Amino acid sequence: AETLQAQALPIIPVAESSVILDLLLRICYPVQKPTLDDLAVADSLLAAALKYEMTCVVEFTCAALTSLINLTRVEESEDGDLKEIMRVYAIACRHNLNDLAGEAARVTLRYDITDVWGPEFRELSAEYYFRLLRYHRQVARAVVLAFNNEFNVVAFIGECPAAGTTGYTKCDVDLRRGMSPWRTLFPEDVKAELQK
What we know:
By secondary structure, this protein is mainly alpha-helical. It has helices at residues 2-8, 18-28, 39-51, 55-70, 79-94, 98-107, 126-150, 187-195, and strands at 153-159, 166-173. The protein has eight helices and two strands, in the order αααααααββα.
């Protein structure tokens, strides 16, 4: 009797794999939520969630990807971290997830992004990569501008008479801005690094 009943149920073909359908259903139903540690699976999951208009799955996946990219630390930065972050950026752009793309772009500021390429970029418009490069340049310019405007510093190489130190030393500061008069700065080096 069960086989007759099973045969009577309609079969609806779908493009998604059983792995993706399993994840979609686990996220929607009150069961333990899955972990997303594979970016290719997350990409396919987002495509399916957007296709079927499953907002809770999109939100869950975006939150998981945001957590993933924010786990990287500057001290532990490696090329592998950047590749993962750039892959998240590409996935977010391809699915028009602007908040996620913006968060990934912000995290890429810790890295040199010019030498990174991943499989997700094959389907990505050059416009999005250009936007990321432009964003990096705009942030660097803003920091340099803030540096130039905020610090009224006379830096010199040599010994600071009051502190008795050598190197670049902040010996003459506009004290009306309430800044500490003995802060070591490397203005030219910092500007050069920021402009790269």
